[in-house]
Fold this protein.
Amino acid sequence: MGSFKIHGATVAQVNDGVDLAAMLSPRPYLHPLRTLAGVPLTEAGPADHPHHVGLSLAFSDVNGSNFWGGSTFTRRGPEVLPNHGRQVPSGWLYKDGLGEGAVTWLDRNGRELALEQRSYRCRTHPHADTWSLSFDSVLRPAGELERLTVSSSAVKGRVGAGYGGIFWRLPPGDAPAKVLCSEGAGTEAAHGSLSPWLVVGIRQGGKDVSVVLAQNLAELHPWFVRTEGYVGAGPAVAWDKPVTVDRANPLQLSLHAVIHDGHITSSHHVDELLLHHFSSTPDRTS
């Protein structure tokens, strides 16, 4: 679909996802994402979770259709069901570091379920070896459908599995990933927290790299963070209860990222990086 360059380096590739198998819940995604030095920061189609595709927007249940991919959590446990939906992008335009367009969400029967306006924005950053990314989405019911109900495996009884939303799957590193948030260091401090920001640091090819993730302050979602088995993170929209969406109250989601070639160890460093990111973002509160 498109790609983004910063200082001549290709840092992000946009894929339409149409070639993904049905059970992976086909959807557009960003992969690979790289640091300015070329270190890869996403993984797509890994053997452990082939439905994880770089950076994407996915939910395990929207009105009964699985837009996450893989199995569905039921009263009997995880089961692979013929209930996968798909997201189809259309009308996308790219200019000056901005890609924006529509995404139509089709349910398990191929009917229009939701209409989304989405954008990706990639920008330079004044700090050396650093660039910025913003992923914004507005999702509404399609056609004459009155509402959408977004759920998760946690809502259905799987403890700790509130994942669903804008989700970033990172590659395995040379050493265990390091996590930092405003609540403290470590995955346990970050998982389920309402920290406005989250840092995931990995070591790839002998190089330390960091991804600072941040949400809009007006509506913080708990962070789903995992570093055991695989490395992935994102705000969880339906952490412990379903979320209802209608035309008057669309689901508005944003994830901001500052990608840094180097190690981040302090909240002061995070604040500095995010200050410059948000100084060039139109409105963090909306």
The chain is about 5% helix and 45% strand. The helical segments are 187-190, 267-279. The chain has one domain: 2-279. Residues 20 and 26 are 5 Å apart (CA to CA).
